[in-house]
Amino acid sequence: xxxxxxxxxxxxxxxxxxxxxxxxxxxxxxxxxxxxxxxxxxxxxxxxxxxxxxxxxxxxxxxxxxxxxxxxxxxxxxxxxxxxxxxxxxxxxxxxxxxxxxxxxxxxxxxxxxxxxxxxxxxxxxxxxxxxxxxxxxxxx
Length: 141
Known about the structure:
The chain is mostly helical.
């Protein structure tokens, strides 16, 4: 049976916090966009709530795993896994940024550009955490 390291458990917590909190943000923001809310400042309270939720989930989750198991220091394997996962997910963020710049040139409203930037960051982080977990479970290829 696989005994997950502190770093792997931490990755699960980070993945869950981002998926739940920003996923919720995008559900609400999507409803707002469909309702015609085109002023970016209207999304700030929802975003702040999502960030607070991310922090809360991470704090509670990390305290729980620290109590349940003794945290070990990051070793070379953890660093390589993080680097490779970042390497394999960064293209998604770069694609979103370049697309956002193109949309700015085309004079697309900033509310859409901002959400595209946030969405590309969200998807890149999800992919990065999922890739880390894959490497922890299956090994690096």
